[in-house]
Amino acid sequence: MRSAPLSAGAALQAFAAELYPICRSITGAGVRQTLRLINRHIELDWHEVPSGTKVFDWEVPLEWNIEDAWVADADGRRVVDFNAHNLHILNYSEPVRTALGLEQLKPRLHTIPAHEDWIPYRTSYYHRQWGFCLRHRELASLRPGRYEVVVDSSLAPGSLSYAESVVPGRSRDEVLFFTHICHPSLANDNTSGMAIATALAAWIAAAPRRYSYRVVFAPGTIGSLCWLQRNRQRLGRIRHGLVLGLLADPAPFTYKRSRRGDCEIDRVVEYVTRSIDPRTRVMDFEPYGYDERQLCSPGFNLPVGRLTRSVNDGYPEYHSSADNLALMSASQLEQGLEACKQVIELLESNRRYINLSPRGEPRLGKRGLYGAMGGRSPADRERAMLWVLNQSDGSASLLDIAQRSGIGFPALKAVADELEKASLLRAARPARPSKPKKAAPARSVRRKRPDIRSTGRRK
Amino acid sequence: MRSAPLSAGAALQAFAAELYPICRSITGAGVRQTLRLINRHIELDWHEVPSGTKVFDWEVPLEWNIEDAWVADADGRRVVDFNAHNLHILNYSEPVRTALGLEQLKPRLHTIPAHEDWIPYRTSYYHRQWGFCLRHRELASLRPGRYEVVVDSSLAPGSLSYAESVVPGRSRDEVLFFTHICHPSLANDNTSGMAIATALAAWIAAAPRRYSYRVVFAPGTIGSLCWLQRNRQRLGRIRHGLVLGLLADPAPFTYKRSRRGDCEIDRVVEYVTRSIDPRTRVMDFEPYGYDERQLCSPGFNLPVGRLTRSVNDGYPEYHSSADNLALMSASQLEQGLEACKQVIELLESNRRYINLSPRGEPRLGKRGLYGAMGGRSPADRERAMLWVLNQSDGSASLLDIAQRSGIGFPALKAVADELEKASLLRAARPARPSKPKKAAPARSVRRKRPDIRSTGRRK
Amino acid sequence: MRSAPLSAGAALQAFAAELYPICRSITGAGVRQTLRLINRHIELDWHEVPSGTKVFDWEVPLEWNIEDAWVADADGRRVVDFNAHNLHILNYSEPVRTALGLEQLKPRLHTIPAHEDWIPYRTSYYHRQWGFCLRHRELASLRPGRYEVVVDSSLAPGSLSYAESVVPGRSRDEVLFFTHICHPSLANDNTSGMAIATALAAWIAAAPRRYSYRVVFAPGTIGSLCWLQRNRQRLGRIRHGLVLGLLADPAPFTYKRSRRGDCEIDRVVEYVTRSIDPRTRVMDFEPYGYDERQLCSPGFNLPVGRLTRSVNDGYPEYHSSADNLALMSASQLEQGLEACKQVIELLESNRRYINLSPRGEPRLGKRGLYGAMGGRSPADRERAMLWVLNQSDGSASLLDIAQRSGIGFPALKAVADELEKASLLRAARPARPSKPKKAAPARSVRRKRPDIRSTGRRK
Question: Whole-model pTM?
Answer without folding.
Answer: 0.90
